[in-house]
């Protein structure tokens, strides 16, 4: 049925892989000090030590880490690409404020798109595509088990993008990647470890239905999965530190 399908190029077969860092993946590595600041601010956001809307002052961050403002600016640009920080002209950088309404709209659109994705995957997928998904799920489970919040958010979303890329629908893969990135922050901040584990288990069930070419079951599982993922998000911010030095202090050199 699809065995004669033309092989995509190696570049095409590479999964999006970085839901919140697609642009950065193609660029040269950032300096260690920049990566340290990126990791520290990311962790402070995830752990609710920095509240949505908190101002990230370049001068203060530079003083905390003993680096130049140029290094801090590089880190903030990276965080902006990752949708974790918003850069406002003449005002500076702020922790992005996840919109509940936007997240709900994203999931509604994803439910429509991914019904088609399931149908197309069942029609076009070959053995190598199923192997790629199984390999991805092994990585996903490992990250979920070690409670790597950033890693699990990326890989849980990548499962859906990878499905589209494996069957050569790169337009859909790009659309899904962008949709997922738009609510990445709210997922990072408010998805519990238990919910993440449940989401990964649902991916396993979806893959089994896909391997059986059971379109109806796979579509029903995908619909239930996306609804469960949305409902698992805790849309209520927790108490955060208002002091930048205190929020980042334990991560400073």
TrEMBL record:
Every HTH gntR-type domain range = 31-98
UniProt entry tagged with the keyword Hydrolase: no
Has UniProt tagged this entry with the keyword Ion transport? no
Example GO molecular function: DNA-binding transcription factor activity
Question: Which InterPro entries does the UniProt record give?
Answer: GntR_C, TF_FadR/GntR_C, Tscrpt_reg_HTH_GntR, WH-like_DNA-bd_sf, WH_DNA-bd_sf
The record ties this protein, via SUPFAM superfamilies, to: GntR ligand-binding domain-like, Winged helix' DNA-binding domain
Q: Which UniProt keywords apply?
A: DNA-binding, Transcription, Transcription regulation
The protein depicted here goes by the name: Transcriptional regulator, GntR family
Please give the organism. Answer: Thiomonas intermedia (strain K12) (Thiobacillus intermedius)
């Amino acid at each position: 049925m699809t065995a004669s399908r033309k092989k995509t190029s190696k570049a095409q077969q590479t999964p999006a892989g970085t839901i919140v860092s697609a642009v950065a993946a193609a660029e040269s590595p950032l300096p260690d000090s920049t990566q340290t600041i990126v990791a520290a601010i990311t962790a402070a956001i995830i752990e609710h030590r920095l509240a949505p809307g908190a101002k990230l002052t370049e001068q203060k961050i530079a003083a905390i880490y003993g680096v130049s403002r140029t290094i801090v600016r590089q880190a903030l640009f990276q965080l902006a690409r990752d949708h974790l920080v918003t850069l406002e002209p003449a005002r500076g950088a702020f922790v992005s404020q996840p919109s509940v309404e936007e997240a709900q709209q994203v999931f509604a659109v994803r439910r429509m798109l991914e019904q088609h994705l399931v149908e197309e995957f069942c029609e076009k997928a070959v053995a190598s595509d199923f192997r790629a998904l199984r390999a991805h799920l092994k990585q996903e489970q490992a990250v979920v088990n070690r409670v790597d919040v950033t890693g699990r958010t990326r890989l849980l979303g990548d499962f859906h993008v990878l499905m589209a890329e494996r069957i050569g629908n790169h337009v859909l893969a790009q659309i899904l990647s962008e949709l997922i990135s738009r609510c990445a922050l709210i997922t990072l901040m408010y998805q519990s470890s238990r919910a993440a584990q449940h989401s990964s288990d649902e991916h396993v069930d979806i893959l089994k239905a896909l391997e059986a070419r059971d379109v109806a079951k796979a579509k029903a599982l995908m619909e239930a999965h996306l609804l469960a993922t949305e409902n698992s998000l805790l849309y209520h911010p927790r108490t955060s530190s208002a002091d930048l030095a205190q929020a980042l202090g334990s991560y400073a050199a």
